[in-house]
């Protein structure tokens, strides 16, 4: 029994090992081999460090990569003997040791260390095309055109390559495949694709209810894999067909070692023949390929279009589910949209059943859910065709049941953040304000976790133990209350005859109250005259509007569990 409790409670408290194990390989230390002038240009012209810091800070990444710069290949080899690095980025011109030779020597020392070649002049592409036989030890090539987001894209590209095998095996992560042989072009749109993925993840983070779920969301974003020919693309599709959600492909690139003007079309035909349900995008400098893209059920983008980047972003938002879920009728007219999971769940009950059938046939629901990190729900609904439901309304009921079941399971036993759309289910501990939960709050939260981890109802049918719905005001609200209502000043004024001018020695109002002899009713009057924060009052009104049962209000102090100075049982319910 003890072993079962240990396992279940640990799983509940720290979360599924699947999520903890995602993104195990990260790029933290980067060796940049470039002239000091190039490094200066990266920093000053593109605000490299600021850009990197801002991106990582906004997206809640745990650690910003550290970049070490050396000017020559010779110095790079010396520092590699002394320090460990996760990624080497080398410019083309780095002194006596060429970038190709540097890559070869690095691989002889550290075969697993990625080496990327970064160009800063488009004319250099001709050089690497000419030197293709010397490029065997370079993992890939990118072009810097003044946008320092290329560095973030290169980092994420390497991290995705190193984590994709293990992360997709968990069934929680999906794959976007890019097939493009133009260095200039993929160096432009890869940062855009990553930015859209990151921004979507950031937007969803604020909608998550617990810190654990927020961290999980960042780890379950789709992996982006870049390949440069037909055969590499087939290999990726075969390996990750169960995880693939999108293929973005050029039309003309190598197939079987030679340039094939229709390689992209052939790849899309292969995908269709294999009946893979993925979003498809074909891009070309030849606008005459547009009708062929339509024949293989792919969206077409003209590479020379003035609105190329805007069109690419539109495709990402519309077809990969990174934007709002737009619900339409059979004629394609918009009737509603959902920006997040709670809105989606709410709309399922309201929209016409014909709209649910329309989107269900096209797998729009599961694609949107996958992009939004709701893999568990998507895995439940995607394999089930609408023909499995004899009555259209039964599909609606099934979707609602799956949503509620997984949402409750995801949050059960945990202290979750307040959300006005998620305060009804019993057995939830909901935090209204930040700060400590206090003694009673911690005790109730622990008991709730224990009951959920043991699942006693399933083990003993004649026993039914439930926790009351509980809302906890964290101690930060107390600190704000004291400060915003000038409580300390009011107490000092009340006690002016007994407190010296050295009143600043009392760091907080609690220590001050311990050193005065004022009557309790006087102190009580000062506190009752104060105002709660606007945010807390708004939340309390929402709770009262949906609650018809008696509410017990209890204090939950910081000292209730103190072994040396216990302070409990002071206030009545």
Structural features, described:
With 573 residues, the protein is of the alpha/beta class. It has four domains: 17-151, Response regulator (Rossmann fold); 174-322, 3-Layer(aba) Sandwich (Rossmann fold); 325-410, no CATH class; 429-485 and 531-546, no CATH class. Helix content is 49%, strand content 14%. The protein is built from 26 helices and 17 strands. The strands form five sheets. The protein has a five-stranded parallel sheet, with helices on both faces. A five-stranded parallel sheet has the order 7-6-8-11-12, with helices on both faces. A hairpin with a 2-residue loop joins strand 9 and strand 10 (258-260). Helix 8 (149-169) packs across helix 9. The longest helix has 23 residues, at 183-205. It is globular, with a radius of gyration of 29 Å.
List keywords for this structure.
573 residues, alpha/beta, Rossmann fold, 5-stranded parallel sheet, 26 helices, globular
- CATH fold field value of the largest domain: Rossmann fold
Quick check: average pLDDT? Answer: 82
How many separate structural domains? 4
Number of DSSP helical runs: 26
CATH level-two architecture of the largest domain: 3-Layer(aba) Sandwich
Give the overall shape.
globular
Structural class: alpha/beta
The first-to-last residue Cα distance is 36 Å
Helix content: 40-55%
Give start-end ranges of low-pLDDT stretches.
501-505
Proportion of strand residues: 5-15%
CATH class of the largest domain: Alpha Beta
**Order of strands across the main sheet:** 2-1-3-4-5
For the CA atoms, what is the radius of gyration? 29 Å
Please identify which CATH superfamily of the largest domain we are dealing with.
Response regulator
Biggest β-sheet description: 5 strands, parallel
The total strand number stands at 17
């Amino acid at each position: 029994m003890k072993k079962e409790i240990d396992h279940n409670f640990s799983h509940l408290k720290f979360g599924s090992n699947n999520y903890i194990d995602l993104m195990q390989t990260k790029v933290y230390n980067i060796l940049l081999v470039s002239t000091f002038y190039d490094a200066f240009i990266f920093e000053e012209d593109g605000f490299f460090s600021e850009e990197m810091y801002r991106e990582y800070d906004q997206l809640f990444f745990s650690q910003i990569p550290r970049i070490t710069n050396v000017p020559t290949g010779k110095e790079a080899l010396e520092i590699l003997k002394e320090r460990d690095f996760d990624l080497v980025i080398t410019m083309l011109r780095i002194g006596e040791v060429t970038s190709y030779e540097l890559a070869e020597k690095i691989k002889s020392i550290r075969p697993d260390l990625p080496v990327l070649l970064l160009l800063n002049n488009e004319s250099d592409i001709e050089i690497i095309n000419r030197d293709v036989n010397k490029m065997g030890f370079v993992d890939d090539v990118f072009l810097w055109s003044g946008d320092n987001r290329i560095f973030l894209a290169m980092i994420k590209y390497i991290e995705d390559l190193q984590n994709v095998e293990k992360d997709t095996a968990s069934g929680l992560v999906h794959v976007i495949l890019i097939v493009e042989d133009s260095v200039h072009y993929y160096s432009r749109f890869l940062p855009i694709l990553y930015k859209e993925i990151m921004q979507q993840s950031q937007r969803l983070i604020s909608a998550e209810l617990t810190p654990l779920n927020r961290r999980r969301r960042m780890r379950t974003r789709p992996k982006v894999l870049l390949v440069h020919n037909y055969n590499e693309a087939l290999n990726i599709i075969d390996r990750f067909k169960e995880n693939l959600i999108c293929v973005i492909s050029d039309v003309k690139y190598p197939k079987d070692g030679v340039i094939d003007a229709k390689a992209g079309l052939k790849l899309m035909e292969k995908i269709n023949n294999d009946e893979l349900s993925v979003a498809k995008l074909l891009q070309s400098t030849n606008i005459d390929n547009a009708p062929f893209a339509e024949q293989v059920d792919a969206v077409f983008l003209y590479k020379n279009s003035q609105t190329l980047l805007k069109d690419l972003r539109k495709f990402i938002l519309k077809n990969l589910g990174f934007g709002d879920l737009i619900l339409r009728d059979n004629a394609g007219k918009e009737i509603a949209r959902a920006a997040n999971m709670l809105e989606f769940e709410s709309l399922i009950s309201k929209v016409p059943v014909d709209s649910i059938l329309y989107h269900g046939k096209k797998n729009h629901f599961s694609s949107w859910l996958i992009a939004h990190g709701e893999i568990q729900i998507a895995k439940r609904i995607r394999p089930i065709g609408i023909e499995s439901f004899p009555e259209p309304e039964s599909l609606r009921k099934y979707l609602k049941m799956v949503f509620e079941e997984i949402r409750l399971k995801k949050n059960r036993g945990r202290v979750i953040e307040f959300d006005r759309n998620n305060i009804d289910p019993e057995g939830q501990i909901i935090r209204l304000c930040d700060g400590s939960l206090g003694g009673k709050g911690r005790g109730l939260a622990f008991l709730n976790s224990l009951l959920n981890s043991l699942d006693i109802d399933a083990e003993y049918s004649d026993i039914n133990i439930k926790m009351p719905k509980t809302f906890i005001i964290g101690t930060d609200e107390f600190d704000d209350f004291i400060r915003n209502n000038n409580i300390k000043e009011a107490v000092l004024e009340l006690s002016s005859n007994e407190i010296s001018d050295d009143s600043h020695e009392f760091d907080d109002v609690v220590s001050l109250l311990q050193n005065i002899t004022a009557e309790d009713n006087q102190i009580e009057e000062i506190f009752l005259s104060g105002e709660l924060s606007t945010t807390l009052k708004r939340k309390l009104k929402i709770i009262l509007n949906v609650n018809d049962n008696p509410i017990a209000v209890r204090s939950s102090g910081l000292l209730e569990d103190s072994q040396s100075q216990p302070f409990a049982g002071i206030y009545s319910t």
